[in-house]
Design a protein that fits this description.
The protein is of the alpha/beta class. It folds into two domains: 242 residues, Aspartate Aminotransferase, domain 2; 100 residues, Aspartate Aminotransferase, domain 1. The protein is built from 14 helices and 13 strands. The strands form three sheets. Strands 2-8-7-6-5-3-4 form a seven-stranded mixed sheet, with helices on both faces. It has a four-stranded antiparallel sheet with strand order 9-10-13-12, with helices on one face. Strands 1-11 form a two-stranded parallel sheet. β12 and β13 form a beta hairpin. It binds pyridoxal-5'-phosphate. Pyridoxal-5'-phosphate binds next to α3. Pyridoxal-5'-phosphate (PLP) binds next to α3.
C-alpha cells in the first residue's frame, strides 16, 4: 500500500460521487441544457456569493479563461513570482492571449507588499509599459506552503487594485481550504474579487473539474472563451454530478486534512535533518528542506531521498530547488501520517546518519 502525499489531486472519487455520476441526469451543455451542470453552476455561484459560474475541465482552464476574458492582447496582468498561474500553467497567457505578466515578489505568506504592488500598477499613459488590467491573487498559496491569505489581506489588496481601475482574479484552486482554516464563509473571503477559480478535483476529491465564478456579464463572456479553448463539453453532467457531491459533502472534512498536516509538520520538525520551509502549516500542505547540519541538500539529493522513500511506500513531491512537499487529503488518516513519519525518519537515518540538530538553517 502506498501512502501518496504528492498532492491532493490523487484523491479518488467517493462512493457517493460514483453513485451520483451513474445516476446523473444529463443534456447538451453547449446548448445550456445539462440540468446537472446547471445545478452545479448555480450551487457554486451561491457558495461563492457571485452571480454566475462556469464549469471548466481544470483549474488551468479556469485561470486561463479568466485571463483571456479580463485582459485583451497587449494588456498586463500582475502575478506573484511564486504563483501557480505564472509558473505552472504552460504560459497560456502569452501563448493564447498575448497577455504580458508583470511579476511582483510574493511575501512568505503568498500575499504582496502593498507598496510594491501599488508601484507595479501602470496605466496607459506611457508607451513603455503595458497597462495593468488585472491583479491575480492565489489563496491558499501553493508554493508558499498552503498559507491562507486572511480576509483583511484579500480586502486590502482588492481595494488597492480597484482604486486604480484594476480587476482582481483569485486563483482559489484551494479556496475552500482557506475558508475552513480561517473559519469564514468562502463568500466573505472572495467578496471583493471580480472572479475566482476553484478546483473540485483537489481536496474536494471530485475526479475532474473546476469552476470559474463572477458576474453574469463576465461569465457570459467567459463562456465564449471556454468554447474557444475546447471546453464546451456536451453531457458533462456525469462529471458535474461528482462536483455537486464535492461541494455538499466534502468541504467541512478539509479540517481533518489540516489537522493531519499539522501532525506531520510537528513530527518532521523533531527530525534534525529537516527544516520546515513555510512560515505556517495552516492548511493541507507541509513544505520542507533536507539539511545535513551544515547546508540544505540540493535537488539531486532530494530526488534520491524521494526514491528511497518510495521503496518504503511513501510518495512526496518536489517543488524544485530542494523543496519537498507533502499534501494531506481524503484517504489519508492519522495512522498513515504515523507510518509516513516513521519511514521518513528511517530513510533519513540511512542517508544522513551523523546529522546533528541545530545546524544553521
Ligand atoms: C492545481 C492548481 C491549479 C491548476 O489546477 P489544474 O486542475 O491542475 O489545472 C491552479 N492553481 C493552483 C494554486 C493549483 O494548486
Amino acid at each position: 500500500m502506498l501512502i501518496d502525499l504528492r498532492s491532493d489531486t490523487v484523491t479518488q472519487p467517493t462512493p457517493a460521487m460514483r453513485e451520483a455520476m451513474y445516476r446523473a441526469e444529463v443534456g447538451d451543455d453547449v446548448y445550456g441544457e445539462d440540468p446537472t451542470v446547471n445545478r452545479l453552476q448555480e450551487l457554486a455561484a451561491e457558495r461563492l456569493g457571485k452571480e454566475a459560474a462556469l464549469f471548466v475541465t481544470s483549474g488551468t482552464m479556469g485561470n486561463t479563461t479568466a485571463l483571456l476574458t479580463h485582459v485583451p492582447r497587449g494588456g498586463a496582468a500582475i502575478v506573484g513570482n511564486q504563483a501557480h498561474m505564472y509558473r505552472y500553467e504552460g504560459g497560456g497567457a502569452a501563448r493564447l492571449g498575448g497577455i504580458h505578466f508583470w511579476v511582483v515578489s510574493n511575501q512568505p505568506d503568498g500575499g504582496f507588499d502593498q507598496e510594491q504592488l501599488a508601484a507595479a500598477i501602470t496605466d496607459d499613459s506611457d508607451e513603455h509599459t503595458p497597462p495593468t488590467l488585472l491583479l491575480c491573487l492565489e489563496n491558499t498559496h501553493n508554493r508558499c506552503g498552503g498559507c491562507a491569505l486572511s480576509l483583511e489581506q484579500m480586502t486590502t489588496l482588492c481595494r488597492l487594485a480597484h482604486a486604480r481601475g484594476v480587476k482582481v482574479h483569485v486563483d482559489g484552486a484551494r479556496i475552500f481550504n482557506a475558508a475552513v482554516a480561517l473559519g469564514l464563509p468562502v463568500s466573505q473571503l472572495v467578496a471583493e474579487a471580480d472572479s475566482v477559480t476553484f478546483c473540485l478535483s483537489k481536496g474536494l476529491s471530485a475526479p475532474v473539474g473546476s469552476l470559474l465564478v463572477g458576474s453574469r456579464d463576465f461569465i457570459s463572456r467567459a463562456r465564449w472563451v471556454r468554447k474557444v479553448l475546447g471546453g464546451g463539453l456536451r453531457q458533462a453532467g456525469v462529471l458535474a454530478a461528482a462536483g455537486i457531491v464535492a461541494l455538499e459533502q466534502m468541504v467541512e472534512r478539509l479540517a481533518e486534512d489540516h489537522a493531519h498536516a499539522r501532525l506531520l509538520a510537528e513530527g518532521l520538525a523533531e527530525l534534525p535533518q529537516i527544516r520546515l520551509a513555510a512560515q505556517c502549516v495552516q492548511t493541507n500542505m507541509v513544505i520542507f528542506r533536507l539539511h545535513d547540519g551544515e547546508r540544505a541538500l540540493p535537488e539531486e539529493r532530494c530526488a534520491e531521498f524521494r526514491a528511497r522513500l518510495k521503496n518504503e511506500g511513501v510518495l512526496l513531491s518536489s517543488m524544485d530547488d530542494g523543496l519537498l512537499r507533502a499534501v494531506t487529503h481524503y484517504g489519508i488518516e492519522r495512522p498513515h501520517i504515523e507510518l509516513a513519519l516513521a519511514a521518513i525518519k528511517r530513510t533519513l537515518e540511512e542517508m544522513l546518519p551523523r546529522t546533528r540538530p541545530g545546524g544553521a538553517s
